[in-house]
Amino acid sequence: MTPDAIVASFRDVVAQERPVVMAGVGSGLTAAGATKGGAHLIAAYSTAVYRCRGLPSVLSFLPYDNANDLAFSVAADVVAQAGACPVILGLGVHDPRAAVDRLLDRVEAFGAVGIMNEPFVGMYSSAIRADLDAAGFGFRREVALVERAAARNMLAYAWAFTPDEAREMVGSGARVVGAMLGPSRDDDSALGRALVEADAIAGAAIASDPDVIVLAHGGPLTAPGIVREFLLRSACHGYATGSSAERRPVIEAVAEVVGQFGAPLREHR
């Protein structure tokens, strides 16, 4: 599918007053589940691979593995299980050895339709971000990734932490913007703040391109109920899942079934 066709399908979902759902996955197994559940877009990326290993997602932002190798290690399985659902891969472009076009070649070779800027420097402290930006290996690299993907007619999904980042990413060719609210945390009291932050990002993106799709992620958006409440009040068009539709449901479902297998064979009186 072309980016135009994909975005048009998202607009159709919005017109039906339904949320667009991007499922973040780290394995073919969870990609199969997301497809069966009706995901409109699937993304495979390094943090999801970590959580599928039962490890903290934040490890992806530490220098122990090559983030792109992690994404590519599950790409074939995810694409195969996704069927007709479009797949994008998260790419880290801050490595000076990682030529953007070579990375995009590999994305296309797996059959994925696009990319997103994951990992992103927005997760780091302001001091680390400033050092990376000053050296030329910060946010500008993520913008260049989006520009190059758009030029190659690939779907460019851009995470943005601020309205300014959203405007710049849309201006660089992003067709979908992720309003990033930081690491996921169970905190219903933070919903009001999340609405303000996400709508500021959404407003900036939509002002730059009325056809852009904005999906929210992170912060207190950890369960279907609170996400539904959020979307009823937000300018965002949908939700990007993470641990909320991968780590937690898998652990809970496996625990329930194993418990059923281990239930007493006879009722004891």
What do these coordinates show?
- This protein is α/β, with parallel strands linked by helices.
- 48% of the residues lie in helices and 14% in strands.
Set out the fold topology.
Blueprint: H1 3-15, E1 20-25, H2 28-36, E2 41-44, H3 46-52, H4 67-82, E3 87-91, H5 100-109, E4 114-117, H6 126-135, H7 139-151, E5 155-160, H8 163-171, E6 176-180, H9 191-208, E7 213-217, H10 224-233, E8 238-240, H11 247-261
Parallel strand pairs: 1-2, 1-8, 2-3, 3-4, 4-5, 5-6, 6-7, 7-8
Q: Report the β-strand fraction as a percent range.
A: 5-15%
> What Rg is obtained from the alpha carbons, in whole angstroms?
19 Å
Let me know the largest β-sheet: 8 strands, parallel, barrel
Overall pLDDT score: 95
Which stretches are poorly predicted, pLDDT < 50 over at least 5 residues? none
Write out key terms for the chains shown.
globular, 14% strand, alpha/beta, 8-stranded parallel barrel, 269 residues, single chain
Would you summarize the structure shown here?
The chain is an alpha/beta fold. Helices cover 48% and strands 14% of the residues.
